[in-house]
Amino acid sequence: MVSPEQEEIRSAMVEYQAGRLEAFDRLYVLLSPRLWRFLVSLSRDAPRSEDLLQETFLQIHRARRSYDCRRPVEPWAFAIAKHVFLMDRRAQARRGGARVSPLEPRDEPAVRSHDEPLVARDQVERGLAGLTPGRRSAVLLHHLWGWSFSEIGSRLGVSGRVAKLRSSRGMASLRAFFRKDLSTDGH
Q1: Non-local CB neighbours of 5 within 8 Å, separated by 6+ positions
Q2: Which of 32, 50, 95, 157 has its CA at a distance of 20 to 30 angstroms from the CA of residue 113?
Q3: Is the pTM of this model over 0.70?
Q4: How far is CA 62 from CA 9, 17, 59, 80, in A?
């Protein structure tokens, strides 16, 4: 069942696709607070999230024709926002931006997205610590930083195929770890 708000968002997107520019304003008002919170939860940098939000809406504009009006807008928009975040992170890494461990504690608490996390930070840290260094690097570079397997392979000195295999096996190990860890915690 679609909520009235979801229907309003979908309606604004359909109108925007049809060329009604005022519909973009409605879409922005409806989506921007959620997208901004999501981007803050990823970047943990509120000022940077403002820039990422603007880039997200630019990408929504560019990709507006690819939106399928039979589907909800939010998952599509959140996927674009995540892609914008990952591309920004990749660009920062290439420019030699500050290297911060993705699991390093921050001074300010992260803003949570609308979904509760399935696993806690300490579980992720323990799961990653249990991986071999090659698998851990491949998982973090691909799933957190958004690098392609050929980029990971170049960085790690292996082929893209080997990087993909390491990432795949690392994720399988993490899933098994989380299933085991959650079942022993009584969740």
Answers
A1: 30
A2: 95
A3: no
A4: 18, 11, 5, 11
The rounded distance, in Å, linking the Cα atoms of 10 and 182 is: 37
CATH fold for the domain made of 121-184:
Arc Repressor Mutant, subunit A (1.10.10)
pLDDT by position in tens, the chain (length 187): 778 888 999 999 999 988 888 889 999 999 999 999 999 988 888 888 999 999 999 999 888 888 888 888 999 999 999 999 998 888 877 777 544 444 444 444 444 444 444 456 677 788 888 999 899 888 888 877 777 888 888 888 899 999 999 999 998 998 888 777 666 655 4
For 88, phi then psi, to 5°, come to -65, -45
Arch. (CATH architecture) of 4-94: Orthogonal Bundle (1.10)
83 vs 88, 89, 124, 133, 175, CA distance in Å?
8, 10, 22, 26, 23
Q: Pick from 113, 111, 184, 86: which is nearest to 176 by CA?
A: 184
Name the strand (E) or helix (H) holding 169.
helix 160-184
By CB atoms closer than 10 A (0-12, 13-18, 19+), residue 16 is buried
The domains of the chain are located at 4-94, 121-184
Q: Which residue has the tokens 């096996």?
A: 169
